[in-house]
Amino acid sequence: MDFDSLSKAPELLAPISVLYTQRLKQFGADPRGVFWRNEEGQKLRFQVMAGILNPFDTGLTLTDLGCGYGAFFDFLKDYPALQGGRYLGFDICEDMLALAAERITDPRAVFAHSLAAVEKCDYAFASGTFNLMGDTAEDEWVDYIKASLVHLWSTAVRGMAFNMLDRAAGASGLGLYRADADEFSDFCKRELSPDVTLRDDYPLNEWTLLVRRPV
After folding, report:
1. Terminal alpha carbon distance of the chain
2. Residues 121, 87, 42: CA angle, nearest 5 degrees
């Protein structure tokens, strides 16, 4: 896929949306509803991603690509960044978005059906967004991920954080994609910014990249 286009994304993501809808019906607003094991792990990965935020900054706009039922907003709502700030949640699954809007009535949070971020923000996040590839061929899925990251980066004024399952932790299964941390770290340094921090020092079978714009 061309990095300037996400033209194939609707075709790739349609079956993924169906899988999330089925999972949501089974588990509801629960980490298992978005293919995570438990709340403890979910909070830890959120904490790692939020490490890109300056604790003294307020009034920021934060994008969450693949927001699901809004769990990341629940985690961030008392952070200084969202004092006078905005949270923009985008997702491909309409049932997830409906549940998020039902659960979260805070006026700072806005949820929209979209396969990509459509507004500028200070920081962009993608937690687990690229983990489930279903029956998509791996090379095609990797092209989609990289195109999506390039687009997401174009919306982020200050930085971006995202996580993926770690290839070093074992083989993929159940339509999951496990990524090589070095491959994506090198990609971000080459295509996005030289300021890239890899976090693989927390006890989950995944890694997180924090990408900052040069000061």
Report:
1. 31
2. 110
The pair phi, psi for residue 17, each rounded to 5°, is -60, -40
**What sign results for the dihedral spanned by CA atoms 35, 107, 116, 195?**
negative
**Is the entire prediction scored with pTM above 0.90?**
yes
Tens digits of per-residue pLDDT, 77-87?
A: 999 999 999 99
Write down the residue that tokens 């629940």 correspond to: 74
96-123 pLDDT tens trace? 999 999 999 999 999 999 999 999 999 9
3-state SS assignment for residue 66: coil
Here the contacts of 149-152 (C-beta below 8 Å, separation 24 or greater) are 149/187, 149/188, 149/191, 149/192, 150/3, 150/4, 150/191, 150/192, 151/6, 151/116, 151/117, 152/63, 152/65, 152/116, 152/117, 152/124, 152/126
